Request: fold
Amino acid sequence: MGLLNYLRSTILSKVVMAITGAILVIYVIVHTAGNLLIYLGQDTLNSYSQFLHSLGPILWIIRIILIVSAILHIVTSIKLKFENWGAKPTKYAVKNYLKAKFSSRTMIWTGIMVLAFVVYHLLHFTIRVTNPQHYYPEFYQPHNAVSYVLLERFDVYKMVVLGFKNPLISIIYIIGVVIVGFHLDHAIQSMFQTLGYNQKHYFPIIQKSSTALAIIIVICLVSIPISVLLGLVGGKI
Amino acid sequence: MKVKLHIWRQKNNKEKGKFETYELNNVLEDMSFLEMLDVLNEKLILEGKEPVAFDHDCREGICGACSLTINGIPHGPEKATTTCQLHMRKFKDGDEIWIEPFRAKAFPIIKDLVVDRSAFDRIIQAGGFISVNTGQAPEANSILVPKQNADNAMDAAQCIGCGACVAACPNGAAMLFVGAKVSHFAYLPQGQPERKLRVLKMVEQMQKEGFGNCSNLYECEAACPKEISVRFIALMNRDYLKASCSEEKLEVINNE
Reply:
């Protein structure tokens, strides 16, 4: 297979992990920023969702890039992991880690959990099969309308609020996001190292920023189900 | 001082190994770790038992022959120190010490604590050199080397090829060793003519030997007795990427 030839090289495999990972991380950052619009109210969040859906083919191009990145990321990681297990057939009876962080050593497991979480998340909010009772249309007055009209659009705000009012769903999201955070803590700095950006004067900053960015993303995303559960967001719904 | 040793004993590569426990009562604080093992071996020989096989040579911390994973850390608990330069004063009276060989598929066990590290030699043979014409040595100052580059090259050249990086890596990867050897020449003008071919060939040989892949855990850097930095792995990654798109890559493909 011509496309998958890179898998024969250990370094090119790592580079594919880094580049596909970078695409997914950028997506997570944009997605997080978009989600925070929920704090600006129902109209803002629903308008944003309406805007995304109005992109049409562009939305699908983005989705295809993300799907291809995710597939390459997963295929490459599995190949690397099996080789790594093969290269260390006998484990030490006693092993003391000096520098390898817990998040770094568990990438394959957090990765599998992130995949499971993403599948659930897509079924819940994108394909919308897990909680069909939460999906309503919203009737709204467009800002630029010259006369009184009511248009119909999908009510994302209500869907999110009704979903997160269920403590079980909220807990799944909180755990899922924390696991994403663990994965990113190692991933972001690892990307720079793999692509060859490591010099004494800035790499410690990249390592700290990697952890900081992971924590910021987790806090932003976890705040949404918690705000809904506390009634701070969507109290009226 | 007294110590209780759990030592990996394995007759050869074919047979299964296991831990044997030995107690030593007459260990002096000023003994090196290897001298402590010498005392154990003398005792075993007097008792008519097979002494423990372990690698050693210069016992000055510069040759890279000694190995041993001591309490789960290659070359033991002291930072930036080879096993031969580790002293028993770093342990407490009554300590239990677990001694295992460097473990990796590419480092098969020969006997007890001795592993075959010739995979490293084959990686060096693949490209860890510069080609020069024989004859009179050139005038030393005819090729200028910036101070910064000389320092970086010397930092990379500190590598003694002991294999602690492979032993420490949960993936059994040799990226720190190969990264150091590639970078050592990459920083010097004499290394430039073969720079791309070198990184391609050395990485290819590394893969053939069955070393694992780098997961950027940086465990190698922490275990390295010469404190080789993982930034040399980053430099190798970059060089490899550039070389993969060059004419030299075509040469490697055509020679296969």
Summary: Chain A has a mean pLDDT of 95. The longest strand of chain A covers residues 137-140. Chain A touches chain B through 42 residues (CB under 8 Å). Chain A has one domain: 3-83+101-229.
